[in-house]
Structures are given as C-alpha cells and as structure tokens.
Amino acid sequence: MALVIGGGILMVAAFLYFGFKLRIVFQISREPLSHGGVPTLDGIIFPPIFFTWGLSFFGEGSDFLAMPTWGYWILWIVLTLLAYLSFMAVQTIASKKRPR
After folding, report:
1. Which residues fall within 8 angstroms of residue 68, CB to CB, at 6 or more apart?
2. Which segments of 31-68 does DSSP mark as H helices, in order?
3. CA distance 51 to 56
4. Can you give the pTM of this predicted structure?
5. Using CB atoms within 10 A of its CB, is residue 54 exposed (0-12), middle (13-18) or buried (19+)?
6. How confident is the model at residue 37 (pLDDT cuts 50, 70, 90)?
7. Which helix (H) or strand (E) holds 81?
C-alpha cells in the first residue's frame, strides 16, 4: 500500500513540476528582450523520470499495472520526447504572440 501511495505522489509531483516549467517557458518566451530561448531544460528531464518511477512503484504495489522493466524504459523515452516536443511547441506559440 505504501508503494501505491508513494507512486501516486511521485506521479502528481511530476505533473505539477512539468506544468510549472511549461508556465516558465511560456512567460520567458513572451518577454520582448529574451529572444524566446528555453530558460531551463530540467523540466524535460526530471518529470518523465519522476512519473516513470511513480508508475513503477504503483505497479509494484498493486498487481493492476505491472510491466516488465523494458516497458518502463520505453515509457521514459517516450515521455521525455513528448516533454521536449511540448516545450518547443509552447515556446514557438508563445514567441509568435510576443508583444512587439
């Protein structure tokens, strides 16, 4: 039961951290003097790791969602790629709406 709760907490923390970093990317991309650069890449690296760890803890604690180890590696790679693409999309959209 503790693994299920800990895994759930890690997954929620990953979503909150990712949302916070997306907000920062959006705000920095709209700054007129920033040239629209991504201020930090830790939002691409750490939330997929936390989410994958949380999901693995959740799967170990309950027999509902048990995957082999290679499944977690593939999930982490896919989540990291999606995080990168979403950061770049938010940066592109926000920089087009930049006040001139």
Report:
1. none
2. 42-61
3. 9
4. 0.81
5. buried
6. low
7. helix 69-96
